[in-house]
Design goal:
Elements: H1 4-11, H2 13-21, E1 25-29, E2 32-36, H3 40-56, E3 79-81, E4 84-88, E5 94-98, H4 100-111, H5 116-121, H6 126-143, H7 152-173, H8 175-179, H9 183-188
Antiparallel strand pairs: 1-2, 3-4, 4-5
Helix pairs in contact: 4-7, 6-7
């Protein structure tokens, strides 16, 4: 729910303050948080304190394990947080990049707009689908503009838009009619690009 981060801030306000008061460098968004530490020992202590403070609120964390979301990662390993991977580069610095799993999630999320049953449940018409797609794409562009590989999204956006619209029109018109559409008709439906207008140079 869009309002859940607000309630998370209200409920976890004292938790945030106490973690910071105890000297932990923590970043939190809703119920996801990451603690930066100088040693593995400090990581275990952060985990212990966080569990203690959250238990007072009736909350808990998944078991600390390399196979769970709650884990300790060494400085040479990538840290996945909010869909971004904070990872070391070859020149000794760090970068924020979209993880492969997050790219796949974005592709799948955009792909839901191909499902007729989903579109009916959402009460979306063809114009509404185009608007929804553009809004989702704008949101992803804004959210992940900081990613070093943000350009990888553009291919996903273009492919998703084309495949969603193609699937919808093919479902509505039927495969035979759809496959018989002319190039101009496909342009009007947004399935092919219009040719670029030739520029004319006017001499004096």
């Amino acid at each position: 729910m869009p309002i859940s981060p607000f309630f998370s801030n209200v409920i976890l306000h004292e938790f945030d303050q106490e973690m910071v008061r105890r000297g932990f460098k923590m970043v939190r968004y809703a119920d996801d948080f990451i603690v930066l530490a100088n040693s593995e020992r400090d990581c275990f202590e952060a985990d212990r304190v966080a569990r203690f403070l959250l238990a007072k609120l009736g909350l808990s964390l998944p078991t600390l394990s390399s196979n769970n979301k709650t884990k300790i990662i060494d400085p040479d390993g990538p840290v996945d947080f909010l869909g971004l991977s904070f990872r070391p580069t070859q020149n000794g610095t760090y970068e924020l990049a979209l993880s492969d799993s997050q790219l796949a999630k974005i592709k799948n999320r955009l792909g839901t707009l191909r499902d007729i049953d989903y579109l009916v449940a959402e009460r979306l018409t063809v114009p509404g689908i185009a608007v929804r797609l553009e809004n989702m794409i704008a949101g992803y562009r804004s959210a992940y503009a900081c990613a070093s590989n943000a350009s990888a999204l553009e291919g996903i956006f273009e492919t998703s838009k084309l495949s969603s619209l193609t699937s919808i029109y093919r479902s509505i018109l039927g495969a035979t009619v759809f496959d018989s559409l002319s190039q101009k008709q496909l342009m009007v439906l947004g399935l092919q690009n219009f040719p670029q207008k030739s520029s004319k140079t006017v001499g004096r």
